[in-house]
Amino acid sequence: MRTVCDVGEMFQVLENRIANNFIPALTGRESCSNEERSLLSLPTRHSGLNLPNPVDLAEIQHDASLKLTEPLKKMTLSHNTSVAALFRKHELDKKREYGERVREVENSSFTQLVFSTTGGTSRETTVVYKRLADLLANKLN
């Protein structure tokens, strides 16, 4: 379960349904005491049914999530590279990788197009798109 901070009490309705409806239907008994509920929340290897209490579990899961993502968060925040700088780096990498072969073997030139997965483009890609739009507009008019 993934949770955000301070949502445990929001799961109380679900816990009430589990304790008052589901567990009695499962066990064939009319009600479930707090002690029985605690025992049934234990993992099966400890003779429970692994039916955790979502109210209790929410805070535990939130703490675990914070601990697990802390290294990634620190790494992400330590990089002060702008998106434009990343696009420029990828443009230069492509120029180095393909530029010489295109010039020497194919006797040509090329413009590298750099896109992000979120729809962003590099400066040179934007220039190419604008040029293509101008050519299409002129052709259609």
Question: What attributes does this structure have?
Answer:
141 residues; mainly alpha; 2 domains; 5 helices; 62% helix
Number of domains: 2
- What is the tally of beta strands? 0
| Shape call | elongated
Provide the helix percentage.
Answer: 55-70%
Q: Quickly count the helices.
A: 5
Structural class, from helix and strand content? Answer: mainly alpha
* Through-space gap between termini: 58 Å
Mean pLDDT, nearest integer?
85
H-E order: HHHHH
| Beta-strand share of residues | under 5%
Biggest β-sheet: count, sense, barrel? none
Rg over CA atoms, rounded to whole Å, is: 29 Å
Which spans of ≥5 residues are poorly predicted at pLDDT below 50? none
Q: What's the short story on this structure?
A:
This protein has helices at 12-27, 34-40, 54-78, 83-104, 123-140.
What would your notes on this structure say?
The chain folds into 2 domains: 1-81, no CATH class; 82-140, no CATH class. With 141 residues, the protein is an all-alpha fold. The chain is built from 5 helices and no strands. The chain has helices at 12-27, 34-40, 54-78, 83-104, 123-140.
Describe the secondary structure blueprint for this structure.
Blueprint: H1 12-27, H2 34-40, H3 54-78, H4 83-104, H5 123-140
